[in-house]
Specification:
The chain has 158 residues and is α+β, with helices and mostly antiparallel strands. It contains 6 helices and 5 strands; from the N terminus they run H-E-E-H-H-H-E-H-E-E-H. The termini are close together. The model has no long low-confidence stretch (mean pLDDT 87).
């Protein structure tokens, strides 16, 4: 089975110059964890996700392991200060500029392997030959399709 058969094509996107706080508000309203970032020509520029935001909110000394007792750190104050510093920055400052890109004609097996190896996110951005956004496919989409195949008893790999 090919990516184009199950990818999500109705997408909410954002632009590099939008503010982090505005994009997060839109994501919250639409119950999303990520937004593909596109240029005016619909070329993929990156991915903005809750993961990429958290990577900028949590101080480096926490993630590096330099602070031995994180439980005693004044957590909400630190997190709030870091969030406030970046809330009005552009998405371009915090987005992942190297998302996992796949094509609609790729097999689900190859994308499942790529998602496993990539490890940062549970989704891949589907693009055409010119890097224009075509859709998104997630590990959950692939697992849902497998579940449906098992329920339907369809073992056709077409």
């Amino acid at each position: 089975m090919l990516v184009k058969n199950i990818m999500v094509t109705k997408l909410t996107t954002a632009y590099v110059d939008e503010h982090v706080c505005d994009a997060l508000d839109r994501m919250r309203q639409e119950n999303l964890r990520m937004l593909p970032i596109v240029t005016e020509d619909n070329v993929v520029a990156g991915v903005f996700s809750t993961f990429s935001v958290m990577a900028h909110v949590v101080p480096d000394y926490i993630t590096s392991g330099d602070l031995q007792q994180v439980t005693y750190a004044p957590d909400m104050g630190i997190l709030r200060r870091h969030y406030n510093k970046m809330a009005h920055k552009s998405i371009g400052a915090v987005m992942d500029k190297n998302p996992l890109l796949v094509h609609g004609k790729d097999s689900l097996l190859s994308v499942a392997a790529a998602l496993t190896a990539y490890g940062k996110h549970e989704y891949a951005i589907v693009v055409d030959e010119q890097q224009h956004l075509s859709g998104v496919i997630s590990a959950g989409d692939i697992l849902d399709r497998l579940r449906c195949i098992l329920k339907e008893g369809d073992v056709n790999d077409a």
